[in-house]
């Protein structure tokens, strides 16, 4: 018998509905409104205007009941609404895993992007249903909706990974992602206006 024989929770089944983008039984759900994305869009005035307006929900995250603790393997589904702020496509806050753990994202519907930055190099993976984007340890990551409908993806990550959001505020994400007449374009990060 392994020394780690007793786990905090018993084995159980999770129903994954890709079409509905849900996990059942459900765990915690969170909503990120525009006001939660302070300091992230380059055009601060456009961001403030959206906050002072209807302060829209930019994305939601629905988790399974697996806890975010070491050695567990939690999952969550993120759905990003379509939209732009100052031309920049709507996105997640983005974070670094403080103790450098990997993660996978599986695109479910819509089209998105997985932007990764290790403080030096930038990588982009276009995400369409069926694509698994692999995030190696040490790469900060952010999801972007590059389409006209909601973009959903399933994330599976080590429960002890942690989420360092300040890392992105300090280091940026290497590139920003803007809507163009033909789709989208990556531009250098730059500061806030
Ligand atoms: C994902 C993200 C989720 C929301 O589950 O946490 O997409 O993005 P932010 O955490 O950047 O707001 C993940 O990468 N977990 O580790
Ligand atoms: Zn992560």
Number of helices: 2
CATH superfamily: Jelly Rolls
Name the CATH class.
Mainly Beta
Q: Characterize the biggest β-sheet.
A: 6 strands, antiparallel
CATH architecture: Sandwich
Order of helices and strands: EEEHEEEEEEEEEEHEE
Strand order of the largest sheet: 3-4-5-13-8-11
- CATH fold type: Jelly Rolls
- Based on DSSP secondary structure assignment, what is the total number of beta strands? 15
What is the count of distinct domains? 1
Radius of gyration in whole Å, from Cα? Answer: 17 Å
Shape by Cα distribution: globular
Q: Percentage of helical residues?
A: under 10%
C-alpha termini separation: 59 Å
The averaged pLDDT comes out at 95
Give every kind of bound small molecule, once each: 5-phospho-D-arabinohydroxamic acid, zinc ion
Helix/strand/pairing class, anyone? mainly beta
Portion in strands: 35-45%
Low-confidence stretches: none
Fill in the keyword field for this structure.
single chain; 193 residues; mainly beta; Jelly Rolls; six-stranded antiparallel β-sheet; three-stranded antiparallel β-sheet; 2 helices; 39% strand; binds 5-phospho-D-arabinohydroxamic acid; binds zinc ion
Secondary structure elements and their pairing?
Elements (H helix, E strand, L loop, with lengths): L14 E3 L4 E3 L4 E5 L10 H9 L4 E7 L11 E6 L3 E2 L2 E2 L13 E7 L2 E6 L4 E6 L4 E4 L4 E6 L5 E6 L9 H6 L3 E6 L2 E6 L5
The chain binds 5-phospho-D-arabinohydroxamic acid and zinc ion.
5-phospho-D-arabinohydroxamic acid binds next to strand 5 and strand 12.
Pathway: Carbohydrate degradation; glycolysis; D-glyceraldehyde 3-phosphate and glycerone phosphate from D-glucose: step 2/4
GO molecular function, one term: glucose-6-phosphate isomerase activity
GO biological process, one term: glycolytic process
């Amino acid at each position: 018998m392994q020394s780690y024989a007793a786990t905090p929770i018993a084995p159980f089944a999770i129903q994954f509905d890709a079409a509905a983008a849900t996990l059942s039984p459900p765990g915690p759900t969170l909503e990120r409104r525009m006001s939660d994305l302070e300091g992230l869009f380059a055009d601060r005035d456009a961001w403030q205007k959206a906050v002072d307006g209807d302060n829209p929900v930019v994305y939601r995250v629905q988790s399974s009941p697996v806890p975010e603790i070491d050695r567990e393997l939690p999952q969550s589904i993120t759905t990003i609404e379509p939209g732009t702020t100052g031309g920049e496509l709507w996105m997640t806050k983005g974070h670094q895993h403080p103790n450098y753990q990997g993660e996978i994202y599986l695109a479910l519907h819509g089209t998105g992007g997985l932007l990764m930055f290790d403080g030096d190099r930038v990588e982009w993976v276009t995400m369409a249903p069926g694509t698994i984007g692999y995030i190696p340890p040490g790469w900060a990551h952010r999801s972007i909706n590059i389409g006209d409908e909601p973009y959903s993806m399933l994330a599976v990550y080590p429960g002890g990974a942690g989420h360092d959001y300040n890392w992105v505020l300090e280091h940026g994400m290497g590139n920003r992602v803007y809507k163009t007449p033909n789709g989208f374009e990556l531009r250098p990060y730059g500061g806030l206006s």
